[in-house]
Design goal:
single chain, Rossmann fold, alpha/beta, AB_hydrolase_fold, 31% helix, methyl indole-3-acetate esterase activity
């Protein structure tokens, strides 16, 4: 049995794991998923959201040794959490996620990718503090292999994403480096280019890099397969 903590990506919330949580529990694991500050049911104002606030929310949710799974942008806050306090983090799993490098921002890494498939769908707020995703484009960029019902469910729950955490340079260090890491590449991803995912994962041991044939949202398109893979990683 493994304790899992599941962390959502940009504009999402704990709701995105609704199919994966029961699938992991069926395999004998304990599972928790949280809303990061200003996401889902969390009422933190956008103007107060920082990368370290994300990291603190993650650490506050860890009570026992835990495998922490971060989807997409959550690669940064799960890494920062490990950098601050790795004592209860057994492993970091990057699910088609940004795997940070010292001193980089998430926005730096996004711009480093060979192309920017998400940017055509990004709508920046008038005050410049956040962005949303054009609801007419979410199916194409996030959910192209998901059911219409799941895509519709998600579209009514997507929220504004604070920009500051993604423009903050990350500090990592020895605590982060010492935590075991796995990477799950999504080969049909239309948000983070799969070739860039492979580049980010290139320095990990080969046995810690996995590839699945899904979109950016395997928690909807293949929750059983994702749960099986997480079970294998935990083992």
């Amino acid at each position: 049995m493994t304790n899992f903590l599941l962390i959502h990506g940009s504009c999402h919330g704990a709701w995105c794991w609704r199919h994966v949580i029961p699938a992991l529990k069926l395999r004998g694991h304990k599972v928790n998923a949280i809303d990061l500050p200003s996401h889902g049911a969390d009422g933190t104002p956008i103007c107060e959201v920082t990368l370290d606030l994300y990291a603190k929310a993650i650490l506050d949710a860890i009570k026992v040794p835990t495998v922490v799974v971060g989807h997409s942008m959550a690669g940064f806050p799960i890494s920062r959490a490990a950098a601050l306090d790795n004592r209860m983090i057994k492993r970091l799993v990057f699910l088609c996620a940004y795997m940070p490098r010292e001193g980089m921002t998430l926005a730096d890494m996004r711009r480093e990718a060979p192309y920017q498939p998400l940017m055509q769908a990004v709508v920046k707020s008038a005050d410049g503090l956040s962005f949303t995703i054009d609801p007419l484009q979410t199916r194409d960029v996030f959910y192209h292999d998901c059911t219409a019902a799941d895509a519709a469910y998600a579209n009514t729950r997507l929220c504004p994403q604070a920009i500051l955490p993604q423009e903050t340079s990350i500090e990592l260090g020895a605590k982060y480096e010492s935590v075991p890491k796995s990477y799950v590449i999504c080969s049909e991803d239309r948000t983070i280019p799969p070739e860039y995912q492979r580049q980010m994962a290139a320095n990990l041991p080969k046995e810690d890099v996995y590839e699945i044939s899904t979109s950016h949202s395997p928690f909807f398109s293949d929750p059983t397969g994702l749960a099986n893979l997480l079970h294998r990683i935990a083992g």
